[in-house]
Amino acid sequence: MKKGISPLIAVIMLIAFTMIIAAILAVWAQHYAETQTSKMQMCLESGLYIHTCKWIAGASPNGSLKTIVKNTGDHDLTFNIILEYENETRHPNIVYPVGSSTNPTIYNISVNEYKTITLQDIGDDLEEVTIRSILCGDYGIYDTLGKNYITGLTG
Q: 16-48 pLDDT, tens per residue?
């Protein structure tokens, strides 16, 4: 005759195991919800604005781009700049962040600060400039200027 645990003990162990897993998941879910809520609250109180964007002609067809960004929110932010070009032959990636696609340049900006960023070797076929918050970009914390609003570029 084989010996084993009784069905009653097996059911009690199964219920205990289920309760332990449920408790672990509840703690994780609560922590995740609190983290997302605080991030969302911070992002609601944040803002970025392109104050000025000017393309300055240089060695044709490239020049420099002087951009003044303002943090209009209540929190310090980090952001990157994304350029979109019109000419696919000259710029095969069309849209890419300043720096490189694998290592974009990240800028820090304090509350109410104006930050001037000058980028070199920018083509005259620039179509759009976007600044995008690293942490809050998914919550709409970004600003975009099209070609017609970039001083120095012909529309």
A: 999 999 999 999 999 999 988 888 888 889 999
Contact between residue 48 and residue 71 where contact means Cβ atoms under 8 Å apart: yes
**Against a cut of 0.85, is the pTM above it?**
no
Helix (H) or strand (E) holding 80: strand 77-85
CA distance 40 to 122: 34
Element (H, E) at 144: strand 142-146
CA distances to 62, 64, 99, 121, 155 from 59, rounded to whole Å, are 6, 10, 21, 9, 20
**Distance (Å, rounded) from C-alpha 57 to C-alpha 66?**
11
Q: What is the 3-state secondary structure (H, E, C) of 43-77?
A: HHCCCEEEEEEEEEECCCCEEEEEEEEEECCCCCE
